[in-house]
Amino acid sequence: MTETRYAVSTARPTVPADRPTVPVKWWAALGATVLAVQVAVVVRWMTGPYFHRVDPGPRFGLRRNGQPTASPAGHATAGAGSRPQLWWKPMSDKRIQLWCVYSVFGFIAIFLVGWVALAGFVPPPSPLDGAERIAELYEHRLLGVRVGLVLCIFASALLLPWGGAICAQMLRIEGSRAPLVWAWIAAQGCVVIEFVYPCTFWLVAAFRTEDSSRVLTFNDLGWLPFLGVVCTGMFQMVALAVLTLRDRRPDPVFPRWFAYFQLWCAVGVGCTFGVYIFKSGPLAFNGVLGFWVPVCVYFIWVVTTTLVTARAINNDDGADTHVALAERITVVENLLAKQLPTGVESASTASQHSPVSTGAMRTDGIRA
Asked: Which residue intervals are annotated with compositional bias (Polar residues) in the record (predicted)?
């Protein structure tokens, strides 16, 4: 009987000579530079001459008798009703909404740089490519894939304020009891996840490229949901169309053609169902109907919806009503603070000599 012995090798696997090395020192220098610039900007912001403390406006405290109080100069009173001064002038609601809705252009710019320029995912690989071919593609642009997809993940967060600005205009149509608005913002959160998780799967594929079958699995796990999960986006388009058609006011929030545009976009992105079924042809995830048409339609939808929403925000006269009211209150308080002593003395003198004057003053106050 022969005895078979197995030798166990403890040597580490050799690294291919053509594999790119990680530029640790270069990235460390870049990170230190960015950190130094951020510290300098914060210090300049706190101590520089371009940012001065401004008064955010009056905020009233309450006396024991329930009467509002404010200082003669319009500043906040000390105590529970006081408000600290700010380093910047408060923005109006309309400006905040415009910043939110225009933030999507930052998402588009950063995502295109990371996904197209650095990662090189356009055009997408063929579903018929084998594991060795896909692993070779990742190895060829390994650093670009990692950096570009990290940028895409961070850029996806800019879709949240964009969706919030759109929902603020949708509330003007549906009112306080707005099931479609709340469902729309929930779908927007799902859309952000649908951008983040495919990028994460691609990053996992690029993290360890030694196992080609593993790279192929995570590559498919990124492409299929990225293009195939469009149900939430289609719901958003249909919901916007329904609300636009329901708006019967003479001056609607969104124009009527915007509803039909939403329905057209829903049909355009809905043809990606074939990415789960076909590996070749126009319905595969590198085909005309599986990739190019839905991606272009979604890009057109985002840009058009942004511009139409920005127009609706600019036409919203009630967005800054409370800001204008606060400014008027401040002006009236300043005038009353200057005229209050004289007015009180004259009123008290008149009330002592004529009891009818008190009733007249009350009547005038009620009419005012």
From this structure: 346-357
Residues sharing a CB contact under 8 Å with residue 106, sequence separation 6 or more, in sequence order: 155, 158
Tokens 């919806």, residue located = 305
Question: What is the rounded CA–CA span in Å between residue 234 and residue 162?
Answer: 17
Which two three-digit tokens encode residue 153?
């993940």
Q: How deeply is 312 buried, as exposed, middle or buried, from its count of CB atoms within 10 A (0-12, 13-18, 19+)?
A: buried
Distance CA 79, CA 68 (A): 13
Instruction: Give the C-alpha separation, 97 to 117, whole Å.
Output: 30
116 secondary structure, DSSP code: I
Burial of 160 (0-12, 13-18, 19+ CB in 10 A): middle
Report phi then psi at 54, rounded to 5.
Answer: -125, 155
Give dist(CA 278, CA 273) in Å, integer.
9
DSSP sequence for 260-306:
HHHHHHHHHHGGGGGGGT-SSSTTSTTSIIIIIHHHHHHHHHHHHHH
**Cα separation of 37 and 84, whole Å?**
28
3-class DSSP state of 69: strand
Single-letter amino acid, residue 132: E
Q: What's the pTM?
A: 0.67
Contact partners, residue 160, CB within 8 Å, separation at least 6: 188, 189, 192
